[in-house]
TrEMBL record:
The keyword Oxidoreductase does not apply. PANTHER family: N-ACETYLGLUCOSAMINYL-PHOSPHATIDYLINOSITOL DE-N-ACETYLASE (PTHR12993:SF11), N-ACETYLGLUCOSAMINYL-PHOSPHATIDYLINOSITOL DE-N-ACETYLASE-RELATED (PTHR12993). Zn(2+) binds at H25, D28, H156. Its EC number is 3.5.1.115. HAMAP family: Mca. Pfam families: PIG-L. It comes from Sediminihabitans luteus. Keywords: Hydrolase, Metal-binding, Zinc. This is Mycothiol S-conjugate amidase. It catalyses: mycothiol S-conjugate + H2O = an N-acetyl-L-cysteine-S-conjugate + 1D-myo-inositol 2-amino-2-deoxy-alpha-D-glucopyranoside.
Length: 311
């Protein structure tokens, strides 16, 4: 007899738990919070990755990839296939918002952003499709980046802006009114991804040095310390043991972007899990009561929502 699948986890009210992870480009979902999404999907939570842009302006960042596609359309098509493979590896669904990659402006002075790109779309227009998607998917928890983008790419900053706006506005039936659109939905918690915190990078770097493992973070530590980026608060640590294989498979699926011999795979996984067995988050907004003592971490993005949690 076939084994019964475990019942899907629910809220105290019996609603199946839903998690929406909003990202700027295809591949961001695999480098930030990836094992978390795989873990919740395995638990039976409905997980939807949202990708704001098509990644059309990404360069080939993997030296072993071979020849670059000739046109932006070919690049976009390639990245769609990569994204589908990454979502399959994580066991999640994925949705494109359909905006155009702004590219990372470089130079001094910085060049203007290309016309029509995500970074230049006015907030109300840029947030509208995400508000609609929040009303359709009805997530209890949304993850995104902090207001700085976590990394100074215009699309990462815009990703924060539209996520924050959707979290604030999706539950208000007077805002973003669409004829025949889904009814308003109020998500309960909003988190920021913090997988590239200085605390993590320094801890892993120092552990590598102490163990005689070549650290991929040496230059990074120096560069980041020089920029003096203030460290943001981490409130939540999700344990990822058992889910790093899926994360790695998702990363490798982005073959144009991720070098299988590079940075992301430089540290032996067992060692990494000993030093830093979490993905970290900052609880930015919550509409449910969260009981977290100072200096302690939440260990579940759905804390406060599960049966038995205080309402
Ligand atoms: Zn990105």
């Amino acid at each position: 007899m076939a084994e019964q699948a475990p019942a899907a986890p629910t809220t105290a009210g019996g609603d199946p738990l839903r998690l929406m992870a909003v990202h700027a480009h295809p591949d961001d979902e695999s480098s930030k919070g990836a094992a978390t999404t795989a873990r919740y999907a395995a638990e039976g939570v409905e997980v939807l990755v949202v990708t704001c842009t098509g990644g059309e302006r990404g360069d080939i960042l993997n030296p072993s990839f071979g020849e670059a596609p000739g046109t932006p359309e070919e690049m976009a098509a390639l990245r769609r296939d990569e994204m589908a493979a990454a979502a399959a590896a994580l066991g999640v669904r994925q949705h494109w918002l359909g905006f155009v990659d702004s590219g990372l402006p470089e130079g001094d002075p910085l060049p203007p952003l290309p016309e029509g790109c995500f970074g230049l779309v006015p907030l109300e227009e840029a947030a509208a499709p995400l508000v609609e998607l929040v009303r359709e998917f009805r997530p209890h928890v949304i993850t995104t980046y902090d207001p700085s983008g976590g990394y100074p790419h215009p699309d990462h900053i815009k990703c924060h802006d539209v996520s924050f706006e959707a979290f604030a506005a999706a539950g208000d039936p007077e805002r973003y009114v669409v004829d025949g659109g889904a009814p308003a939905w109020t998500p309960s918690k909003l988190y920021y991804n913090h997988d590239f915190s200085m605390n993590r990078i320094r801890a892993v770097h120092e552990a590598c040095v102490a163990a005689g493992i070549e650290s991929p973070f040496g230059e990074w530590v120096e560069r980041r310390e020089a920029r003096e980026i203030p460290e943001r608060e981490v409130t939540t640590r999700i344990e990822i043991a058992g889910f790093t294989d899926q994360r790695d498979a998702a990363l490798r699926a982005h073959a144009t972007q991720i070098d299988p011999a590079g940075f992301f795979f430089a540290i032996p996984r067992d060692f990494e899990l000993e030093v830093w067995p979490w993905e970290e988050y900052e609880l930015a907004e919550s509409r449910v009561r969260v009981d977290r003592a100072d200096g302690e971490y939440e260990t579940d993005l759905f804390a406060g929502l599960r049966p038995g949690d205080a309402a």
